[in-house]
Write a structure and sequence with these properties.
Blueprint lengths: L9 H16 L6 H14 L2 H11 L3 E3 L7 H14 L4 E4 L2 H4 L3 H10 L12 H14 L5 E4 L6 H10 L3 E3 L2 H6 L7 H20 L5 E4 L11 H17 L4 E7 L4 H21 L6 E2 L2 E3 L9 H18 L3 E3 L12 H19 L8 H24 L4 H11 L16 E5 L5 E6 L6 H17 L7 H6 L15
Parallel strand pairs: 1-9, 2-3, 4-5, 5-6, 6-7, 6-8, 8-9
Antiparallel strand pairs: 10-11
Helix pairs in contact: 4-14, 7-8, 8-10, 10-11, 11-12, 11-15, 12-13, 12-15, 13-14, 15-16
Bound molecules: 5'-deoxyadenosine.
The site of 5'-deoxyadenosine has 10 residues, from loops.
């Protein structure tokens, strides 16, 4: 059977559930009727879709942190602290051992963890199990999103939904092309379709679950926004194909306010446009801006500055969601206090700026928005054409020939011929577009916008060294003053 965007047959989902639970956990699948009963009343008490819908209609922005520790008591304390600091949805970030299906190793590390010392970089969801995690989720007065990312999160998703999580993260584009060296879309798309089909079944039984569409090129380094939008839309189309009804198009912010605002606006427009085009007009979307995913300054005041630049863009774009990093991102997994301070800071600045939003949409934002839309549509239309309208087939074919391509991907199936570089103002442009099918008008604009940086460089040309120099764009050292 060729992989496609067709909806997975229900009997096929049942068969796959039985085999995955048997293979990875040596047990029968969770009883879905029982899970739906718990999850339905939990979602009615505190569901993420309702929270995001409210924010979207009132123009508010829900701040959501990332956070996970091994010990149950500490996780509860962490979630309560973040909720008190202003998090509108609270996270359970899952540890890496669980994400890579090493459930027994995760259980051993949990046994060595105490409330004060986490041996894991997140919450070992499978080791705690459904009953304990239901207790955890029932003990907080905010909706809960389970956060993880890997090619095979089928049991993590099963356990999250049965435990009452009403939000989940990632999809095949992001998990495969940004987080896996050897994985292929042919293998990871069916794994994710299982999860999305399961979400669709929860939704059909009264449990709306929200899913983040992150796409690709939004991890670790800067990238051109239009290319990020393409991945988000493809992940969203694959989600919708299996019956997911609540999608969060994701926009990583990169420190150039006008381009970041435009990115948030464009990704929402494009996701809605292509969902409608492919017949998924009933899907609801809630754009999320996310703090810069690359290297953070390790000095806390600098990190506050970067968070502020991100909040500014998010508040001007009035995105319903803001995924917030912390002032300790440059150091490691944050303490609860640093995480809470970062949330409070974000809430404060959002409150201050968001009411000024309309007056801050500048002509430069409009310019970037139109460029993003033109470029992303050209790539998306070419990808869909290659699959005769099917986004799954199109993605697989397009990736093979570089019509889909990503800078700095760790994945061996990606051509990797695209290079992003910042212009003199810090907006990200294509230095090399590889084989991406960009319209001539867009290429002209991209080149024009690089002219001032080109002029500044000694040789008058930009090179790979400029791309490398951009890695430290978000760091700042005072110029040394001459003695005397
Ligand atoms: N606690 C808090 N933040 C975390 N992240 C990952 N694991 C944790 C955790 N246990 C955040 C980091 C990382 C991003 C992908 O998620 O900010 O950069």
């Amino acid at each position: 059977d060729q992989v496609s965007n067709e909806m997975l047959d229900l009997d096929e989902l049942r068969a796959q559930r039985a085999s995955v639970f048997h293979r990875q956990l040596s047990r029968e699948p969770y009883d879905l009727d029982e899970a739906w009963d718990f999850a339905r009343s939990n979602a009615e008490r505190c569901g993420m879709a309702a929270t995001l819908a409210r924010a979207k209609s009132t123009g508010d922005t829900v701040a959501i942190p990332r956070a996970g520790v091994a010990h149950w008591d500490a996780q509860l304390e962490l979630m309560r602290t973040l909720s008190a600091a202003g998090a509108g949805v609270v996270p359970i970030t899952v540890d890496s051992l669980t994400r890579s299906l090493k459930f027994e190793d995760a259980a051993k590390a949990l046994a060595q963890s105490t409330p004060d010392r986490s041996v894991l970089n997140g919450y070992p969801l499978l080791a705690h199990g459904v009953e304990r995690t239901r207790e955890l989720i029932s003990s907080v007065d905010r909706p809960v999103i389970v956060r993880a990312n890997a090619i095979d999160l089928r049991l993590v998703a099963e356990t999250a939904f049965a435990s009452g999580a009403t939000g989940f993260v990632s999809g095949p584009m992001y998990a495969t092309l940004e987080y896996s060296k050897l994985g292929s879309l042919e293998v990871s798309i069916p794994n994710w379709q299982y999860i999305f089909r399961l979400m669709g079944e929860y939704a059909a039984h009264g449990v709306p679950i929200v899913e983040d569409a992150i796409g690709f090129a939004q991890s670790g380094t800067c990238s051109v926004p239009s290319l990020m939008h393409v991945g988000v839309v493809l992940d969203a189309l694959i989600m919708a194909g299996q019956g997911v009804k609540h999608i969060v198009p994701y926009q990583m912010l990169q420190g150039h306010v006008a381009q970041d605002v435009a990115g948030c606006l464009a990704v929402g427009t494009l996701t809605d446009e292509y969902l409608a085009k492919l017949g998924f007009g009933d899907v609801r979307t809630y754009v999320a801006s996310s703090d810069w995913n690359g290297a953070f300054p390790s000095r806390q005041p600098d990190a506050y500055g970067l968070l502020a630049a991100n909040v500014l863009a998010c508040a001007i774009a009035r995105t319903p969601v803001n995924y917030v990093k912390t002032i300790e991102e440059g150091i490691g997994v944050p303490t609860a206090a640093a995480n809470a301070a970062s949330i409070r800071f974000t809430r404060y600045l959002t409150h201050l700026i968001s009411r000024q939003a309309a007056s801050l949409i500048s002509p430069e934002v409009q310019f970037e928005l139109e460029l993003n839309l033109m470029e992303a549509r050209a790539i998306l239309d070419a990808v869909l054409d290659m699959g005769d309208g099917d986004p799954v087939r199109g993605s697989i074919s397009a990736l093979a020939v570089g019509v889909l391509d990503i800078p700095f991907s760790p994945n061996v199936h990606v051509r990797g011929n695209v290079l992003p570089v910042r212009d003199a103002d810090g907006a990200v442009r294509f230095l090399d577009r590889g084989a991406l099918p960009l319209p001539a008008a867009a290429l002209r604009i991209e080149a024009e916008r690089l002219a001032s940086r080109r002029a500044r460089s000694g040789s008058g040309e930009l090179s790979y060294q400029d791309v490398i120099d951009d890695l430290s764009f978000l760091e700042f050292e005072e110029p040394t003053l001459p003695e005397g």
